[in-house]
Amino acid sequence: MENQSIISFDEFQKFVEANPSVCFYLSTPKCNVCKILKPKVVELIGTKFPQIRFVYVDLNEAKEIAGQLSVFAVPTILIYFDSKEVIRASRNISLEMLGEQIERYYQLMFE
After folding, report:
1. Which stretches make up the Thioredoxin domain (predicted)?
2. pLDDT band at 17; cut points 50, 70, 90
3. Measured distance CA(14)–CA(49) in Å, rounded
């Protein structure tokens, strides 16, 4: 799975429109929880949901994205299907619950 990064809101919107499903991982490099959680989210998406594109967003470089999407806490995970945000998880994230939520939409879309 490629590890792509986006820094402008215009790039963000174009990426959402160009892909049927995207997982955005929004955090900052100094967030220790984010550093531990990110590889686990990458693994979850890569193994269970291979059709979902994973994108990392560094909020230190992408302040416009944080403002436009009302992201006030890190880490924040945004899942988009058909250009619509369907899942938003912030701060205290359960990977098990996140996987269950994604699975519902994923099955409707790809299976």
Report:
1. 9-102
2. very high
3. 22
